[in-house]
Write a structure and sequence with these properties.
This protein is mostly helical. The chain has one domain. It contains 2 helices and no strands. Helix 1 packs across helix 2. The chain is globular and about 35 Å long.
Length: 50
């Protein structure tokens, strides 16, 4: 099971990848994905067992 620090770090990394982009993924502006939607996406992607 992930610790709180690991969960927070994972959320931060997902959000940063969406906003800044990665080598294989373009970035998304706030006008394309709202902060609220990004929070939901990051939570879904970092959920344990999901």
């Amino acid at each position: 099971m992930a610790t709180l620090a690991q969960s927070v770090t994972a959320l931060h990394l997902v959000k940063r990848a969406f906003r800044k982009g990665t080598v294989a993924m373009t970035f998304f502006r706030r006008t394309e994905i709202s902060d609220t939607d990004l929070d939901a996406i990051a939570a879904c992607l970092t959920r344990n067992g999901g």
